Amino acid sequence: MSRRVRSKLTFANALAVIAIFAVIGGSAYAGSKISGKTIQNGTVGAKKLACPKAASSRLNALCYSPAQTAAGWITAAQTGCKNLGLRLPTSGEALLLLNKTGGETWADDIIVEGAAGAAARVQNGVVFSTAVAELHAYRCVTVAG
After folding, report:
1. pLDDT higher than threshold 90 for residue 8
2. What is the pLDDT confidence band of residue 20, given thresholds at 50, 70 and 90?
3. CA 20 to 30 Å from 27, out of 18, 47, 65, 113?
């Protein structure tokens, strides 16, 4: 039996076995060392990152919710989006988003502070200064992650 094994043992066979163990060991080592904390920002493409269920649609790295029921800015910003784990879009994000989806949305910009103040609202490619008490539909957003 040992003579039969010895006749099959060649340099190429021995090197192949060593290479297989090196590959398996290297992959296991890398798998134990790489985690979400060690990945640097910008190294994983946006398409590979998941959107949360509350904002399952996406526009590049921006995940967005369906249009929400009309509400005042304070309600939209402080409870509406926060209850979904999201936020109101910036004016720039809203312009990009509504170019794709249409409709309107509150933006996160306060123009005049206070309960009688004004906030940014985006509709048809225009940013408006709108009283925070007015009721308007809105979308909530987050960045894919």
Report:
1. no
2. confident
3. 47
Q: Does residue 131 have a pLDDT over 90?
A: yes
Q: Evaluate the CA torsion angle 33, 36, 39, 43 in order and state its sign.
A: positive
Residue 132 burial class via C-beta count within 10 angstroms: exposed 0-12, middle 13-18, buried 19 and up: buried
For the whole model, what pTM was predicted?
A: 0.64
DSSP H stretches of helix in the chain: 2-8, 11-33, 73-75, 81-83, 91-101
Q: How far is CA 115 from CA 70, 72, 101, 119, in A?
A: 17, 10, 30, 11
In angstroms, the CA 74 to CA 13 distance is 72
Q: Where are the domains of the chain?
A: 2-33, 46-143
The Cβ of residue 143 has, within 10 Å, a number of other Cβ atoms equal to: 15
Which amino acid, 33? Answer: K
* Cα 56 to Cα 39: distance, rounded to the nearest angstrom: 24
Torsion of CA 109, 115, 117, 121, to 10 degrees: 40
Q: What is the mean pLDDT of residues 36-48?
A: 63
How far is it, in rounded angstroms, from Cα 61 to Cα 46?
Answer: 5
Query: Would you say residue 46 has pLDDT above 60?
Result: no
